[in-house]
Design brief:
The protein is of the alpha/beta class and about 210 residues long. It is built from 9 helices and 6 strands; from the N terminus they run H-E-H-E-H-E-H-E-H-E-H-E-H-H-H. Helix 3 (about 70-80) links the parallel strand 2 (about 55-60) and strand 3. The model is unreliable at about 190-200 and about 210-213 (pLDDT under 50).
Length: about 210
């Protein structure tokens, strides 16, 4: 997680590059264009957010996240959110982009262990995610978990995140710090490797004992 950590300089640099105001509410999703990631669900949720007057900029990052993707661009146009969405394509500075986000969103309909959530939270970005794989375990009580394939629920989760962001700034900063602390305490690579080693040793112990008899 050394690459993924809070970095105010990166935050300001990416926002300046994209001409986004420092205090604007920005969320995004780092994921390739794939049916499993369910970008269609996310775009529908964006339309609902705009309909309900939530101000936002959404950054979409990853392979296929560009103007050449006619299917994605069609969804965005149909939802009426062309002005709110930035298609950034694949980027080599994902940690910097994570820092530019106030919230990371994952709209997937299926995952195993979505590393992107842990990476975002390590940068201090709270997450709104669908309840897939280990997402709820990663996010824990520090973000918002909604059912998959439910655009209204996803929009509501993002709206709740915005309300927290726009409300008590000290509470928001505490949430950001708690996100990183949770990841470093539970999912830091060396710690996870040590836990796997302990489990492996525990599993091997009965066999070793049996062989000595």
């Amino acid at each position: 997680m050394e690459l993924f950590q809070p970095n105010h300089e990166s935050r300001h640099a990416v926002r300046a590059e994209l001409n986004i105001e420092a205090d604007a509410f920005v969320f995004g999703m780092v994921a390739r264009f794939d049916a499993q990631k369910d970008h269609a669900n996310l775009v529908q949720a964006l339309g609902l957010l705009k309909l309900h007057g939530v101000p936002f900029t959404c950054l979409l990052i990853g392979n296929g996240m560009d103007a050449a993707n006619n299917e994605l661009c069609g969804w965005i146009t149909a939802a009426g959110v062309s002005e709110q969405v930035r298609l950034l394509g694949p980027r080599g500075d994902v940690p910097a982009v994570m820092n530019a986000l106030d919230v990371h969103v994952l709209s997937s309909l299926g995952e195993a262990f979505p590393n992107v959530l842990a990476e975002a939270m390590a940068c201090g970005s709270p997450c709104v995610t669908t309840d897939v794989g280990d997402a709820a375990v990663i996010v824990d009580a520090h973000g918002w978990v909604v059912p998959p394939q439910d655009a209204a629920a996803l929009a509501e989760g993002i709206a709740q995140a915005y309300a927290c962001f726009a409300g008590d700034r000290l509470a928001w900063q505490a949430r950001q710090a708690a996100c990183r602390a949770h990841i470093m305490a539970n999912f830091e690579l060396e710690l996870m490797c040590e836990r796997y080693r302990q489990v492996w040793q525990a599993c091997m112990q009965p066999n070793k004992t049996k062989g000595l008899r």
